[in-house]
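Justification of computing resources. Each target in the renewal requires a structure prediction run like the one illustrated here; the chain below, 257 residues long, is used simply to show the kind of job we budget for.
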Amino acid sequence: MSVINSLFSAFLMYSKIPMPKTEWKEENRRYALCFFPLVGAVCGGLIILWYYICSKLNIGNILFAAGCTAIPAVVTGGIHLDGFCDVCDAKSSWGSREKMLEIMSDSHIGAFAAIKLCLYLIIQTALFTEIFDKKLLIVFGAGMVLSRALSGLAAVTFRSAKSSGALQNFVKPAHKRITIVSEIFMIILSCGIMIVSGSWSGIGAVVGGFAAFAYYRIFSYRRFSGITGDLAGWFLQICEFVILLCTVLSHKLVEVL
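Resulting C-alpha cells:
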C-alpha cells in the first residue's frame, strides 16, 4: 500500500492532477521520487495529444507552440518554474551563499527573475514552432521523463545545501537504493526512446540533457555547497530547455548536412 501512496504523493506534490488524498507521513513518501518521472510522461503525452489536435484542426504553428509551452506549466502548477525564478533572483544578487539561500526562501519574485522567465518562455515557444515532426515531439516528451529521472537521482545522491525544506521531505524518507535503481532504469528507458525516435536529434538531446545535469552539479556545489528544492526546479527547467534546443538544432544540422 505504501507504493500506491507514494505514487499519489508524487503526483500530489509535483502536479495538479487530481489524486486521492494520502496521509502526510514518511511511509507514504518512501518511493515517491521513483514515480516522479511519470509526471513527465503525462506532460509529454499531453503535448503529443495536442499535436494531433492541432493537426486535425489545422491550427497554426504559433498556437501549437504556445500550447506546448503552457501544458507542462498547467500540469505541474508551475512548481518548477517557481524554483527557476527563485534561483534566478539569487544568482543575480551575487551575494554570499547564505544571502542567496535567504533570497530563494522569499516567496516574492524579483525583477531579474521576471525578465529571465519571460525570455525563457518566449524562446521555448519559438523553439516549439520549429518542430514539425511527431518524432521530434516524442524525443522531447521522453526528455521530460529524463529530466525528472535525473532530478530524482540527484536528489538522493547529491549533497544537500539545507537540512530541511520541500526537497528533504521526499529525500529523507526515500528508500535510496530502490530510488537509485528506479531512476537509472527510467534514464536508460527515456534515452533509448529519444535515440530510437529521433536518431541524431535524439542523440543530441540526450547529450544536452546530461550536459545540463553535469552543470547542475558543478553550479550547485560551487555556489550553494549542495542542492535545494529550488535548485532542483531550476535544473529541471534548464534541462528541458537544453533538450528542446538540442533537439531542434540537431535536426536542423542534419537537414543542412
